[in-house]
# Entry
Amino acid sequence: MKSPWSRIRQTVCQIAAFALIAASLPVLAQWQWTDSAGKTVFSDRAPPPEVPDKAIRKRPSVASAADPGAGASSPSIMPATSAASAASAGSPPIIRRTDSALAAKAKQAEQADLAQRGAQEARLRQARADNCGRAKSALAHLASGQRVARSNDRGEREVLDDAARALEQQRLQSVVDTECKGP
# Structure
């Protein structure tokens, strides 16, 4: 009769063995080729394009193994048996394909970003046009010579004297100069 601790130990050992086996599976997806110096190179990435097909000794045999350095559009690698038949037919052993769904999502995200930027620019142009119109109107009102009153910090009404009118005209002219420029 086994003790509960021996069963737990056995289960832990089985899980560890399974984890080690699972961790070693990516090692199967290795490339092997001979470089120009005659050295054998092992890598998880495809050899550089200048390496001829006859120098490649081993290709990954898993059809779903992908080149990790390829980025968003990762190439699909053919099994070794079909790669050999493709090489004999004269076509390259690696078939590069783009994931159409991923490309469509990227294009859709780019279009949404452009639309958002366009809407933001349109809002900015509209705000500048509004500011320009208000500043021109206020400047024209000040230039008319009429008495102008405004509320101070305490909410009291005060009439602008000549110095305050000149400062306000300068401020409004600078607003007109900055906001009324063309795009």
The first helix runs from residue 4 to 24. Residues 63-89 have pLDDT under 50 and may be disordered.
